[in-house]
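Postdoc handover notes: sequence design on the structure in folder B. Input tokens:
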């Protein structure tokens, strides 16, 4: 039964709030277990005084009603959480000599609620304080042992400046190193085009040049020697050879 009731109070677990009472300052910690919802209250000062109070499932049912539905319990827990987070809290029956006090929820409400708190012995108070700081240290490991989750203003300004520098160098590296340039891209394209044209011209000259070692040029098909000229020496006329005739044996 207690587990079913307190399962609706998960939103009140691990909450912390500062309460100002006159010149005194208190810190309130909210904790939820399977058996009760507890409040630890510490007084800032040299004495290191701590108080503790809790509501069991039975106490909660006495407030909300025996026939309370899960939705009713959920709404009640959410109302308590809102009151705690908004700091609508007060210390009742508080004097420096009194050991029993109470924590008031909804000091401005028409029907505020009160949780009775009893002062802890010095040894138990010191043990609880150590447990709280141990939990804080474990949570700080996820942020490189930084006590507070937020950075200081100095670190924030350094991060902001470095992010601006990185953004500028990423967006316009040429302007950062070479100064402002209206349009650097066309200059690069023109240089590339000049190199391509120079390579094409060199390739054309290479094709027209005869290969090394071949000093004899072959006659082209259009430059034929004139008719009657010698094939060996086109400048001279070809020799005419007379056919040999042999006498017949009959003669």
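Designed sequence:
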């Amino acid at each position: 039964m207690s587990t079913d009731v307190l399962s609706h109070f998960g939103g009140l677990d691990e909450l912390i709030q500062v309460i100002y009472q006159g010149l005194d300052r208190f810190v309130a910690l909210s904790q939820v277990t399977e058996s009760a919802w507890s409040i630890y209250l510490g007084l800032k000062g040299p004495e290191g005084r701590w108080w503790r109070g809790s509501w069991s499932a039975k106490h909660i049912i006495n407030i909300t009603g025996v026939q309370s539905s899960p939705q009713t319990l959920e709404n009640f827990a959410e109302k308590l959480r809102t009151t705690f987070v908004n700091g609508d809290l007060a210390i009742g029956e508080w004097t420096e000599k009194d050991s029993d006090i109470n924590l008031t929820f909804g000091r401005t409400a028409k029907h505020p609620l009160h949780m009775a708190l009893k002062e802890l012995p010095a040894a138990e108070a010191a043990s609880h304080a150590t447990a709280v700081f141990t939990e804080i240290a474990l949570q700080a490991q996820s942020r490189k042992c930084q006590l507070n989750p937020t950075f200081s203003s100095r670190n924030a300004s350094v991060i902001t400046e470095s992010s601006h520098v990185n953004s500028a160098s990423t967006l316009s590296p040429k302007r950062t190193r070479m100064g402002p340039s209206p349009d650097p891209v066309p200059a690069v394209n023109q240089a590339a085009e000049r190199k391509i044209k120079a390579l094409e011209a060199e390739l054309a000259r290479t094709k027209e040049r005869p290969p090394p070692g071949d000093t004899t040029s072959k006659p082209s098909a259009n430059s034929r020697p004139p008719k009657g000229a010698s094939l060996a020496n086109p400048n001279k006329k070809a020799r005419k050879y007379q056919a040999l005739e042999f006498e017949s044996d009959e003669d």
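Context for whoever picks this up: The CA atoms of residues 13 and 31 lie 5 Å apart. Don't rerun without checking with the PI first.
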